[in-house]
Design brief:
Length: 200
């Protein structure tokens, strides 16, 4: 349908096995994601796109380790291994991803001082990426989300999409999670409460 878009979140080498922030089974979703790309008229991709030395990297804060947390100006921020650094192999889309049909690639996390899980707002929850305006101008009001990781970038994007009034589904078979300290269960509960449709 002409008001529907598939949003493919961060299917990048660093989130796949062998990558810097590998998500278990991250590469397994690629065939299904490709079938969904094929069956949707409109496709948007997101790309996690950090400058070297990004504030979400544990390596940028002395005395910290990946998967810990620190307080930044906008609140608590989980620290990650260096990943998806602009221009590196790890930031490229998985080689099997059929991305050529995508009408838009939206990059996020490029501001050194602020992380961006969501495709719509950075982690201060108020700096927009521009995606909502793009979708609205194009009349794309019904969104299906897939990709990596279920409990971070996919969930944050889905929650923001609902908050912005988009009809929103997450196709769970085409997602994989990081699952840090119960984050997957928490994300699923929050998405359900927010009216995100969870599909297989
Ligand atoms: C992501 C952590 C850090 C994601 C991105 O794509 O879910 N997670 N950067
Ligand atoms: Zn990131």
């Amino acid at each position: 349908m002409d008001n529907e878009a598939l949003i493919v979140i961060d299917v990048q080498n660093d989130f796949c096995p062998g990558g810097a922030l590998a998500v278990n089974g991250g590469d397994e979703i690629v065939p299904l994601v490709n079938r969904l790309i094929d069956s949707h008229a409109h496709v948007v991709l997101t790309q996690d796109w950090h400058p070297a030395g990004h504030s979400s990297f544990a390596s940028s804060h002395a005395g910290t380790a990946p998967f810990g947390s620190i307080d930044l100006t906008y609140g608590p921020q989980t620290l990650w291994p260096d990943h998806c650094v602009q221009g590196t192999k790890g930031a490229e889309f998985h080689a099997g991803l059929a991305w050529t049909k995508a009408e838009l690639v939206i990059r996020k996390g490029f501001r050194p001082a602020i992380d961006s899980y969501s495709a719509f707002f950075e982690n201060d929850r108020k700096t927009p990426t521009g995606l909502a305006g793009y979708l609205r101008e194009r009349g794309l009001s019904k969104l299906s989300l897939v990709g990596l990781a279920t409990d971070y970038c996919v969930a944050y994007s889905a929650l923001d999409a609902r908050r912005l009034g988009f009809e929103t589904s997450v196709i769970l078979d085409a997602c994989r999670a990081i699952d840090l300290g119960g984050s997957l269960q928490n994300a699923l509960t929050q998405m359900k409460e927010a009216g995100v449709k969870l599909a297989a």
